[in-house]
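Design job #97: recover the sequence.
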């Protein structure tokens, strides 16, 4: 799993810092993950053990499977993972910094319109084509947010899909 931990709203380059403490796969680590214990400060439970690492730079995607009531929608957003400008030592979890396609403003709006979840599946191994093939085989709706996404067209695609999947 991954989640949008925080956003960097610099006008010249808006980015997302994805992070997750638990339910994380070490296959997305740039190097050897470390296994660490850090205080959580909430929940009144013992300090959790977690894997701590950065993901490597490169193409990736975030995906979310959404129960629409009468169908499932597989939503994906292609991203470019980038190296952080500074070490993230104050965030002892699995983490990755990315540039969303086509840009953060459009990607976030499209994600919300499509009903995308807060927790996502992050992968640098799968491509949008793999997910589209899976959706076709499973007979489920597929919506892609990528470099070519225009919000008006994406909104119309969701409307057309609503009619198709009735």
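Job complete. Output follows.
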């Amino acid at each position: 799993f991954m989640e949008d931990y925080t956003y960097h709203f610099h006008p010249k380059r808006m980015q997302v810092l994805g992070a997750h403490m638990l339910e994380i796969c070490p296959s997305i680590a740039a190097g050897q993950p470390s296994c660490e214990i850090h205080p959580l400060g909430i929940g009144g439970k013992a300090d959790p053990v977690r894997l701590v690492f950065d993901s490597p730079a490169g193409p990736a995607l975030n995906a979310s499977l959404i129960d629409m009531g009468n169908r499932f929608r597989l939503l994906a957003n292609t991203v470019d993972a980038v190296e952080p400008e500074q070490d993230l030592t104050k965030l002892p979890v699995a983490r990755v910094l990315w540039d969303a396609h086509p840009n953060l403003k459009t990607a976030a709006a499209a994600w919300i319109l499509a009903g995308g979840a807060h927790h996502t599946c992050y992968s640098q191994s799968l491509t949008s084509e793999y997910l589209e093939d899976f959706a076709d085989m499973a007979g489920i709706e597929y919506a892609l947010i990528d470099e070519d996404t225009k919000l008006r067209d994406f909104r119309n695609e969701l409307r057309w899909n609503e009619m198709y999947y009735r």
